[in-house]
Design goal:
Distance between the termini: 66 Å
Structural class: alpha/beta
Number of helices: 7
Largest sheet: 9 strands, mixed
Order of helices and strands: EEEEEHEHEHHEHEEEEHEH
Length: about 260
């Protein structure tokens, strides 16, 4: 069984606010030069799920990201955890900001390099919280898709059985291959790579695929600065009948 896991490099979630700003066009998040990055935390859960699935059901794990060479260290982190291959889709920043272009580039790279039964991704990234790319990749691969998944219970010859988080329960579903499994953090606790894995990952080759950039979407993202906390208003308790309470409420609303 071939398993693909998608990861993304994101700004450190604990980055102080003074190191983050919004561009004048409000289309970009601008980070200070000293800003640190990490693997998106949901993607670490996805990597752990993929490697655990390989260990229990066999197969290989290929980790894929769309970024520049600065993301190689994060691909190596997943290799150190137990992935077998790493593919970086070379994509410029303008195109990485477009979910459709990012997904298209990832789909092309996957089709060129592997034929996965299962693709595993985190439910969303901490920088935009959008969560579009896994669904778009699933569409491009013609894969069934489900989110958010908190357990993988069984793998058959042609399908995988997963637990999807619902309001008050975990519902079980069977997905035919190829399947896109979008996981949440409840599914596992990512392992810490051992020294042997880290040393092997340093020597591993990272396959680079040059994406064909065809033109970004005309629909551009808009970001707004974080607003200050809302001032706490005085609380007034009204006694009396419902009519009395209604009259006071209407007066407070200026009605």
């Amino acid at each position: 069984m071939e398993i693909v896991v998608l990861i993304k490099k994101v700004p450190d979630p604990n980055l102080p606010e003074h190191l983050v700003s919004i561009s004048d066009s409000q289309e970009e998040i601008v980070l200070h030069a000293s800003a640190q990055y990490s693997i998106n935390l949901y993607d670490l859960n996805a990597a752990e799920a993929a490697i655990a699935l390989k260990e229990t059901s066999g197969g290989t794990v290929t980790v894929v990201t769309a970024d520049d060479a600065s993301a190689d260290q994060y691909l190596r982190r997943v290799l150190a955890m137990g992935a077998d291959r790493a593919i970086r889709v070379e994509l410029s920043p303008a195109f990485r900001r477009d979910s459709f272009q990012t997904a298209r580039a990832i789909v092309t790279a996957i089709k060129q390099s592997t034929n996965p039964s299962v693709v595993i991704a985190g439910r969303q990234s901490s920088d935009t919280d959008a969560g579009y790319v896994p669904f778009l990749v699933a569409y491009g691969l013609g894969a069934s898709v489900i989110s958010p998944v908190v357990s993988i219970s069984k793998v058959g010859e042609n399908a995988i059985t997963v637990g999807k988080l619902a309001d008050a329960s975990v519902d079980e579903y069977e997905l035919k291959f190829p399947a896109m499994v979008i996981v949440s953090n409840e599914i596992n606790k990512p392992r810490t790579p051992g020294l042997k894995g880290v040393m092997a990952a340093k020597k591993a080759a990272i396959e680079v695929v040059l994406a064909v950039e065809q033109g970004v979407s005309s629909i551009k993202p808009k970001f707004a600065p974080k607003k200050g906390q809302r001032a706490v208003q005085a609380t007034q308790f009204v006694e009396g009948s419902d009519d009395d309470k209604a009259a006071v409420l209407l007066a407070a609303l200026g009605k």
